[in-house]
Amino acid sequence: MQQTLQLAAVFLMLAPFGRAAENVILAEPAIAEKSKTLDFAAAELARYLKAIAGKECAIAVGAGGGPADVRLAVDRGLAEDEYRIRRAGAAVEIVGGSPRGCLYGAYRFLHALGCRWPLPGAENELVPRRKSIDWPGPEIRSRPAVAHRGLMWIPTAY
Predict the structure, then answer these.
(1) Measured between alpha carbons, how far is 74 from 58 in angstroms, rounded to an integer?
(2) β-strands 91-96, 83-88: how paired?
(3) Which of 56, 77, 54 is nearest to 8 (CA)?
(4) Cα end-to-end span (Å), the chain
């Protein structure tokens, strides 16, 4: 079962000669699990795409699929934190094995566009400024090497 969330950003040029879409669209997912993580991934994409292109990206509920959009989707056939970023026609599709996988994919997409976060805090964000965003890229696929990502601290281990 694949759940889909669609985004389109102002001046996001995904077609070869670029057509601009006008907003960010969260498609009504046929979701059994309404996910705050997917909402957060959409909000982060909208925020950084606005920072890159300098145009406001609205978030609305409804069916998307314009000529230049980014689609977030969950595909349970992938591993939990695995994601895939690829072109699907004129769109870019970010598919994760879970909502968290979609979030990892969204950040990887932003990284491919030039965004960097060397240190915590908004003052340390490095976001490129462009009039348009082009994604010619090949497919990117990533699967974590370990099942658990995170820090663990066991106070009695010392």
Answers:
(1) 22
(2) antiparallel
(3) 56
(4) 46
Q: 88 — alpha (psi -120 to 50), left (phi > 0) or beta?
A: beta
Q: What is the mean pLDDT of residues 89-111?
A: 88
pLDDT tens per residue, range 45-83: 889 988 998 877 665 555 555 555 677 888 889 998 999
pLDDT-above-90 percentage for the chain: 26
CATH number at residue 107: 3.30.379.10
| pTM: predicted TM-score of the whole model, two decimal places | 0.74
Examine residue 153 and state whether it is found in any structural domain, yes or no.
no
Structure tokens at 82: 């695995």
pLDDT tens digits for range 27-37: 444 443 568 88
Structure token pair of residue 15:
């077609």
Q: Please give the residue range of the domain that contains residue 6.
A: 2-142
Give the Cα separation of 65 and 69 in Å (integer). 7
Residue 137 is assigned to a structural domain of this protein: yes
Is residue 6 in a domain? yes
Q: Is residue 132 part of a domain?
A: yes
**Average pLDDT rounded to a whole number, residues 97-112:** 92
Helices 99-112 and 36-53: angle between axes, nearest 10 degrees? 10
Residue 63 forms beta bridges with which residues? none
* Number of structural domains found in the chain: 1
